[in-house]
Design brief:
heterodimer, A: about 110 residues, mainly beta, 4-stranded antiparallel sheet, B: about 120 residues, 7-stranded mixed sheet, globular
């Protein structure tokens, strides 16, 4: 199985500041024939299921604020929240869907400093 | 609006069985693969199984293979997860989740734009 490793496990950021979360896969999840990275980011708030933020590594889901952006390719990926808002406090997960079983990172908890 | 609602979670003894259901609405059910994903504090999010849009193809994680069976009833817009030989480590919140995009009738992508609120399965004597 592909192992997804996120860093850091938690971070505290001041309101309006940038938050950056990294995710590394144990093997490339770039499908060369279509040049797509089979990679997604989710946000999970307490008591709620995960919510899809980003897919294909950098495509924002409909309705997701543009302060959220995804980047990276191959094995290294980044989720950036450009200006942290109070409602962004959550746990963020990365996921690969390149091979079955799809696997998730361990999560990164984002808090307000 | 897409809605998914799981049911069937319960307290069950080790070795027991349970069937989870997920009622879906708000989309063309037979066009999308559906999955079950579980979550625990210890192991995080774990994809378990997927069923293709047609219902003819199923896919499993090793942890589910041989003990869990996913199926769907297209006319009733419902996905099921039959679980047998339950162990304490199966204790988790179980979510059903919809593939974001249709692929073809027999395959699945495995990234999810809609999730149910989850149902709690507890395995304990």
């Amino acid at each position: 199985d592909i192992v997804m490793t996120q860093s850091p496990d938690s971070l505290a950021v001041s309101l309006g500041e940038r938050a950056t979360i990294n995710c590394k896969s144990s093997q490339s999840i770039l499908y060369t024939s279509n040049k797509r990275n089979y990679f997604a980011w989710y946000q999970q708030k307490p008591g709620q299921p995960p919510k899809l933020l980003i897919y294909w590594a950098s495509t924002r889901e409909s309705g997701v604020p543009d302060r959220f952006s995804g980047s990276g390719s191959g094995t290294d990926f980044t989720l950036t929240i450009s200006s942290l808002q109070a409602e962004d406090v959550a746990v963020y997960y990365c996921q690969q869907y390149y091979t079955s079983p799809g696997t998730f990172g361990q999560g990164t908890k984002v808090e307000i400093k | 609006e897409v809605q998914l609602l799981e049911s069937g979670g319960a307290l069950v003894q080790p070795g027991g069985s349970l069937r989870l259901s997920c009622a879906a609405s708000g989309f063309t059910f037979g066009r999308y693969a559906m999955s079950w994903v579980r979550q625990t504090p210890q192991r995080g999010l774990e994809w378990l199984a997927a069923v293709s849009g047609s219902g003819n193809s199923t896919y499993y994680a090793n942890s589910a293979k041989g003990r869990f069976t996913i199926s769907r009833d297209i006319p009733k817009n419902t996905v099921f997860l039959q679980m047998t030989s339950l162990r304490s480590e199966d204790t988790a919140i179980y979510y059903c989740a919809k593939d974001r995009a249709p692929l073809d009738n027999e395959n699945f992508y495995g990234y999810f734009d809609s999730w149910g609120p989850g149902t709690l399965v507890s395995v304990s004597s």
